[in-house]
Design goal:
The complex is a heterodimer of chains A (477) and B (451). Chain A contains 15 helices and four strands. With 477 residues, chain A is mostly helical. Chain B has 15 helices and two strands. Chain B is elongated. Classes of the chains: A mainly alpha (477), B mainly alpha (451).
């Protein structure tokens, strides 16, 4: 009998033993049911959000087009709200969905921060949100694996059985490997069940090929993640003779890896890389827009230089004599100036977020959950990168829209006796459209590659520990 | 065997166990970090408030320097909610509600819209703040169950239970004495650690610290009761550990989270996005109507010209009229938000961890009720400012320099004491929960006698 078939035989026996331990099976079923409930409630919420955002986008478009014939710059101040897209995979992993703004109000002169975060205006209970199918796989599934596997080789009864098996000539590698295969098969089944029950909720949200492929990538990462816990559980069970010691060590690791590290890592990252307050951010941007990057290059002086250059180019003495509307030139200049300033500061802010993420990733050395969480969010489209793609798309649209209006002012001097040139806003801005960002799997894979490498490293270490436990058992026998 | 002797023996046994100091040291380290985090958050919040106040002072100084160049009406434009005396204890809902209001009388009634933006890292927000409240609500129960899960199961495993029960000993008082002893050895030092950490973080209000101690003892009592009931059912320590872990997961994590999901379905929050668009639409309609009216009915030029220009009066009157027209819409939206918040507030009484979080938020002054009280006071302040402006416009009497110097800005008035009804209701809910668990344990105390 080959070692592989022996291992499979051990795995079959272990699966039978696990099946007989009905409490664990029931616990797994309860977790699955809770995950179904979570996916269903999330899906219902997403459907409502999608309808809400569609209605808002339509209402905003109606309002914009109904402005009629007015001063184009007035229209730029009326502004419009651009809602964020709803991600179908948020039914499985809501990620940051509740913590980022769901709409950006665009207007002239300012890049507004996304507003209407679902987490706002809650109560004490709001601090307890976050249960989802993804959370169940990140936190509860490892606990189930530990409870199912900590006693497979430790404890008086299990040790006695192991001794008999070794005495009967079974290689330790086959015994350990068989137990690992059994536990991994159960974990894999749990992931499959979780993915399977969430799939209808995701398809109902209008998931396309990209989302389904992303979901498969998420499933693969969770299999790898749970394999780490399976291997560590089997290793601990083999290395510690006492079931109590094995359980305590594994529970301590679970508490640190699944509960504490994901909470402490962001806190430490913010301590090391503090984020400015919105008020401080706005004050700095406003000051820089007025005084220039150096603080000694006021916008007024730069605009005067531009005016002088135009007067010289058209060989006239006064802006009123220019063939173009200087007000439009001034508005275009102002918009370009404020946008460059905002972009510079937002880029700095996003660089802080990226450094915070790097600090958090360092915590993956003590917790594989830190690696699987961003992977899951990344492919679900519920991480900050996805939100940033939306923000950048909106900003690009805002700038094009406002500059189109400013261009209309620039190219149309006011009629004689009138103060402003008036134009039909719907006609002027018809060619400027907003296109929601699309998910590109290649970009996500590139961004998440370090997390995959970390997960693979964890898997190698965990499998190495399981192999070490087999080696020690072999020596003892 | 007297209760005292049992308790004394239990304490001695616990003190000999190396797990207790290890757990207390762990609690100390976590509390110290959480306290430092809370203090750091408070420092940042204070810095932001100081920035707002500095902006206002700068505006006031400019206004004073240019006094007389144009008519002065309302100098103060900001209302700020200061952090409570125990703010570093719990960040709670402090980041979910605005703490600065723009009370300018010429602007619309959405006084928090322009000031409530948040650019904090969403990843950090999503993970939740690592403050003392998190240590107390989430981690303290883990430490308590880790030290007490084998309250009776260890005796069963070692055969001590059979020997003890062969004596004329009542099982109920025996387990109660053991639980109380562990409570004294674990919950009292834990409370002391948390109090020291809170004081280190700057939360030094004596009344606040007393309330905090009371809350921690009540919550610790609940988890001791949980340990008691688990000990009655679990025959092996491993079983007890699994049971304790499962109860923790249900009480602290899953039940609140699923309750929140259910509440979101039962009473979904009203759409802020749709409300903002609808409000803008209505506001635009009103503005257009007012513009057409003004065009058709221009204000005659007065001679001599009034001190407060008529265009200011028109703008102010139009804004006041528009706000009056928009008020029913805003009230309906606020009512819908209130309905949902009331549901969230009510369900906390059946969830001990949420009740504890709420109690800590109230002690820290980071609860939703205080934030809402600030909103009401800010609106009242603005309404008073508007009344004053209206009066000055009616009398055509801009502020004099003496009046300008006499005027005071917004000051938040705490509308409740430390031992307020809502906080006491939180603690009472936990006490009732503890009694229910203990009653169940008393009814099933016979199970402890089975080997």
């Amino acid at each position: 009998m080959s070692a592989a078939s022996q291992a499979l035989g051990v795995a079959a026996t272990q699966l039978l033993l696990m099946w007989r331990e009905r409490r664990l099976v029931w616990l797994a079923i309860i977790v699955l049911l809770l995950a179904v409930a979570s996916a269903a409630t999330n899906a219902a919420r997403l459907a409502a959000q999608a309808a809400e955002r569609q209605a808002v986008a339509a209402a905003e478009a109606r309002l914009w087009n109904s402005q009629g014939v007015i001063d184009p710059h007035d229209a730029a101040h009326v502004g419009r709200a651009v809602p964020a897209p709803v991600r179908p995979l948020a039914a499985f992993d809501p990620g940051l969905t509740d913590y980022v703004g769901s709409s950006v109000f665009i207007e002239a002169h300012a890049q507004n921060i996304a507003r209407h975060r679902p987490i706002e205006a809650g109560a004490a209970l709001s601090r307890f949100g976050g249960f989802s199918a993804a959370w169940a796989l990140q936190v509860v599934a490892p606990l189930l694996i530990i409870l199912a596997g900590f006693g497979t080789m430790s404890g008086a009864v299990a040790r006695e059985r192991l001794r008999q098996e070794l005495g009967a000539g079974a290689p330790a590698a086959a015994l350990v490997g068989g137990r690992l295969i059994a536990l991994s098969a159960a974990a894999g089944l749990l992931v499959l069940a979780m993915i399977g029950i969430c799939l209808p909720a995701i398809i109902l949200q209008g998931a396309g090929q990209v989302e389904i492929t992303g979901f498969a990538a998420i499933g693969g990462a969770y299999v790898l993640y749970l394999l780490v816990f399976c291997a560590l559980t089997v290793a601990a069970s083999g290395l510690f003779a006492s079931a109590r010691t094995s359980l305590v060590v594994l529970l301590a690791f679970w508490a640190v890896a699944a509960l504490l590290a994901p909470r402490i890592a962001p806190a430490v990252s913010e301590n090391l890389e503090p984020t400015p307050s919105a008020q401080a951010f706005r004050a700095t941007v406003t000051e820089e827009a007025e005084k220039g990057v150096s603080g000694h290059d006021p916008a007024d002086r730069r605009l005067n230089a531009l005016r002088d250059e135009l007067l010289q180019r058209y060989n006239v003495r006064d802006v009123a004599e220019l063939p173009i509307n200087f007000r439009g030139v001034s508005l275009e200049f102002g918009e370009r100036n404020s946008t460059e300033t905002y972009n510079r500061h937002f880029d700095r802010l996003y660089a802080v977020y990226r450094r915070q993420e790097a600090v958090q990733r360092a915590f993956a050395i003590i917790s594989p959950a830190i690696a699987v969480q961003p992977w899951s969010r990344g492919f679900a489209g519920t991480d900050f990168a996805a939100h940033l793609a939306y923000l950048r798309g909106v900003e690009d649209y805002r700038y094009r829209l406002v500059q189109t209006l400013n261009h209309e002012v620039r190219t149309h001097p006011p009629p004689p006796g009138e103060r402003y040139h008036l134009a039909d806003i719907a006609t002027v801005t018809r060619s400027v459209a907003y296109a929601p960002p699309e998910q590109h799997l290649a970009q996500i894979v590139a961004a998440q590659a370090p997390d995959l490498l970390i997960l693979l490293a964890w898997t190698i270490v965990a499998l190495g520990l399981a192999a070490l436990s087999a080696l020690r058992l072999e020596r003892r026998s | 065997m007297s209760m005292f002797a049992t308790g004394f023996y239990e304490v001695r046994r616990l003190l000999r166990d190396r797990a207790l100091p290890a757990l207390l040291i762990l609690l100390l380290v976590l509390s110290a970090y959480a306290a430092w985090n809370g203090a750091d958050w408070l420092r940042q919040r204070d810095a932001t408030i100081n920035l707002v106040k500095a902006t206002e002072l700068e505006e006031l100084a400019t206004m004073r320097a240019e006094f007389g160049a144009y008519p002065a009406l309302t100098p103060y434009h900001y209302a700020v909610l200061p952090p409570g005396a125990m703010a570093s204890l719990s960040i709670g809902q402090a980041e979910a509600y605005p703490f600065v209001a723009d009370t300018s009388v010429f602007r619309d009634a959405q006084i928090f819209r322009r000031t409530s933006a948040d650019i904090g890292s969403p990843t950090v927000r999503a993970a939740g703040r690592f403050d003392l409240a998190f240590v107390i609500v989430f981690l303290l129960p883990l430490i308590i169950v880790a030290a007490t899960y084998d309250l009776w199961s260890r005796e069963r495993e070692r055969g001590v239970a059979a020997i003890v029960l062969a004596q004329p000993v009542a099982i109920g008082p025996l387990i109660a004495a053991k639980a109380l002893a562990r409570g004294v050895a674990l919950v009292l030092p834990s409370t002391a650690i948390i109090l020291v950490a809170a004081a280190f973080a700057g939360a030094r209000d004596p009344g606040g610290l007393v309330t905090l101690a009371l809350a921690v003892l009540v919550y610790g009592g609940f988890w001791l009761a949980v340990a008691v009931i688990i000990s009655l059912f679990a025959r092996r320590s491993t079983e007890a550990a699994i049971g304790a872990g499962a109860v923790w997961l249900i009480v602290v994590v899953m039940a609140p989270s699923l309750t929140l999901a259910a509440a979101d379905l039962a009473a979904p929050p009203p759409s802020e996005m749709q409300f903002a668009t609808a409000l803008k639409q209505r506001d635009m309609q009103i503005a257009e109507r007012q513009r057409l009216y003004r065009e058709a009915n221009p204000t005659p030029v007065r001679a001599p010209a009034p001190r407060i220009p008529d265009r200011w009066r028109e703008r102010f009157a139009d804004r006041v009229a528009a706000d009056r027209e928009l008020a029913p819409m805003i009230e309906a939206h606020e009512r819908a938000k209130y309905k949902r918040r009331r549901l969230l507030d009510t369900v906390r009484f059946v969830l001990p961890s949420v009740a504890m979080q709420d109690a800590l938020d109230r002690i820290a002054g980071s609860d939703a009720d205080r934030a809402l009280a600030f909103q009401r006071q800010a609106h009242t302040f603005r309404a008073d400012q508007r009344r004053g402006t209206e009066e000055r416009m009616r009398r055509d009497a801009p502020l004099t320099l003496a009046e300008f110097d006499r005027l005071r800005g917004f000051e938040f008035r705490e509308s409740r004491g430390l031992f307020n009804a809502a906080m006491l209701a939180d603690l009472m809910a936990i006490v009732i929960g503890t009694f229910i668990v203990l009653l169940a344990a008393w009814i099933r105390r016979g199970r402890a006698a089975t080997p």
